Amino acid sequence: MYDYIIVGSGIAGSVVARILAEEGNKKVLVVERRNHIGGNCYDVEDENGILIHLYGPHIFHTGNEEVRAFLSRFTEWYDFGHEVVAKVGDKLIPVPFNLNTLHMVYDEEKANYLEKKLISEYGEGSRVPIMKLRENDDPDVREIAEYVYQNVFLKYTMKQWGQKPEEISPEVTGRVPVVISYDNRYFKDKYQSVPVDGFTPMFEKMLDHPNIDVKLDTEVKDIVEFKDGKIFFEGKEFNNGMIYTGAIDELFDCKYGRLPYRSLDFKFEHYDQDSFQGHSVVNYTVSEDYTRITEFKFLTGQKDTNGTTIVKEYPFAYTGKEGEIPYYAILDEENDKLYNKYKEDAQKFNNFHLLGRLAEYKYYNIDAMCLKAIQLAKDLLK
Ligand code: FAD
Ligand code: UDP
């Protein structure tokens, strides 16, 4: 008999599984509905031998030493400072908007003047969310804010969320602040990397433990029954422990209505040329229907490839239709309320734990997810 059943083999499920199995000597069953492990971090070679991220480009970035050390047990890293540019007119400008960008969009005299202004207002090295910058009363600062709002945020956010920047959670646009320095990197974290052989081998090593069984191609409800606040497994009530990383509304057949999500349609294209855009990621902040193009070889560091593969991301509203994947929780009060109704019902199960971006209805990066999973596993083993 298993000590724990874990639903989902993404970063949340895999990290928890490993610690329970290894540190707690617990027998663990990981149930995964897809035909592979790794959740949305999954990567695989396409038919041209190019390593692609099937569910969107993923970069592991963190300032947390514990998380870095934990994952480093299962992989070595290809470290790089991840940089993104945005296509604005015929220019490619660095994003987040920073002092390099400022000097690209204004003439030298004005840029020098505005630079001094920004530094005196916020301090060198500071990171200011666009929605905060727009509140500044100084007309010069407002001019910059307006430029950034119009050319970096407005159209991209409309595509990604179907809403204006001021209509979505400030937490979301705050992920890409205006940076008062000459640092072009997209993230500020100490470590910015991808696993040197890809994410999937990292997950394979993590789940490779005598106390872990992984069942692929298995929908949890095919082997577990959830009924009247109880969980049944192999015909018997199962109270040992379950960690659920799937969508919480699905668990209850969406009885209170679906939790809203944004989804993405990924269009992969291969070109028989050395490079398509010369950058790992180009954001389309003022034109096109897609939000960004990722050219994988520049992200993964893969050398000597046969041509190059890119992916374009087309956002749309998730409806729950077969084949659609809920990618981004839409953070607002109303959705929080709906989430909490499901959570209350989930709390009726014995030893049942919600973990992960779908089960918690949150916008998690890999590192935050990993840390949360480490903490849950440790709590369970106390
Ligand atoms: P998931 O990875 O979604 O794993 C959940 C797993 O559970 C899936 O494999 C699913 O098939 C399985 N499952 C669900 N329901 C069931 C069920 N009923 N039965 C059986 N199995 C089930 N983070 C970063 O740090 N850096 C990035 O660059 C980055 N890029 C991103 C790009 C995109 C486009 C998106 C959408 C997210 C990105 N993220 C990034 C966030 C990152 O993907 C998440 O933090 C991480 O995947 C969360 O892991 P998870 O285990 O909670 O969920
Ligand atoms: N954003 C934007 N323009 C950009 C980059 C980001 O408007 O060039 C906004 C957009 O609303 C996006 C959010 O900032 O959803 C967060 O961006 P991030 O790159 O962190 O999104 P993710 O990689 O998680 O999709």
Automatic annotation (TrEMBL):
Tell me a GO cellular component. cytosol
The UniProt record lists the UDP-galactopyranose mutase C-terminal domain at 152-363
Q: Which GO terms describe its molecular function?
A: flavin adenine dinucleotide binding; UDP-galactopyranose mutase activity
Q: Which InterPro entries match?
A: UDP-GALP_mutase, UDP-GalPyranose_mutase_C
UniProt keyword list: FAD, Flavoprotein, Isomerase
Tell me yes or no: is Chaperone among this UniProt entry's keywords: no
Q: Which cofactor does it need?
A: FAD
State the source organism's domain of life. Answer: Bacteria
* Family statement: Belongs to the UDP-galactopyranose/dTDP-fucopyranose mutase family.
User: What is this protein's name?
Assistant: UDP-galactopyranose mutase
Origin species, per record, is Lachnobacterium bovis DSM 14045
